[in-house]
Amino acid sequence: NSIGAEGATALSKNTTWINLQTLNLSINSIGDEGATALSKNTTWINLQTLDLIENSIDAEGATALSKNTTWINLQTLDLGYNSIGAEGATALSKNTTWINLQTLNLGGNSIGAEGATALSKNTTWINLQTLDLIENSIGDEGATALSKNTTWINLQTLTLEYNKIGNEGATALSKNTTWINLQTLDLRYNSIGAEGATALSKNPTWINLQTLNLVDNSIGDEGATALSKNTTWINLQTLNLSINSIGDEGATALSKNTTWINLQTLNLEYNKIGNEGATALSKNTTWPNNIEIIH
Description:
Helix 6 packs parallel to helix 7. The protein is elongated and about 65 Å long. By secondary structure, the protein is of the alpha/beta class. It has helices at residues 4-12, 31-39, 59-66, 85-93, 112-120, 139-147, 167-174, 194-201, 220-228, 248-255, 275-282, and strands at residues 22-24, 49-51, 76-78, 103-105, 130-132, 157-159, 184-186, 211-213, 238-240, 265-267, 292-294. Strands 1-2-3-4-5-6-7-8-9-10-11 form an eleven-stranded parallel β-sheet, with no helix packed on it.
């Protein structure tokens, strides 16, 4: 639709929908004015999901939303692909009302390292399960800051693709000991090399990790070999290492892994694996018989 700021302001004045749980206003160009109006609503005490994707919301609107004290039951806030920047992320990080927040999507908002650092200092969202920061240029500095968070003990999914994260950031993330419930770590399209992959492989905390996505990094044979020696991820189901310059040496090393007994999908597309590596992979006896190996 195209309700704009005027429509959002009208909605914000509603006093009837006391049981409203989901409000989806994505792609409506409500802007800062509309977001600010919504933030002042005091009726929707049962609101659980607020979707404001692609609404031309800047730091001003995000700051207004952060000051809301009514939505005590908010579980999902989606602000993907707006323009809140570091200032908006910092304001959101200081909200102390949304103690039940489970999912926060700030993808494509240019929050940078400064915004990621602010978020990392949040101590309210103890129930946060999913954090999506895709395409935010947080870099090594932002990843390092996030790695130091000790509040999100229930975090299950962390999406950091397209964020200019290199070995330093990956190494910092690998040292996190708080996210004991982490199930999905998405680091696609970054700049992680063998050093970063080696660090990740040594993490002893993520025993519940089910999906690791490292598509289009530069881990090479050395990084693949390091990952193959991992003994922690006994619940790993999906490992995506496509576009990583892995050859027969790396594939052979992976084939010798004896830990990933629940692995269902191993994606090695667009690497440099020949017959030798493919044969080695086919001889693994640890992985389930119905595993899908793509190369």
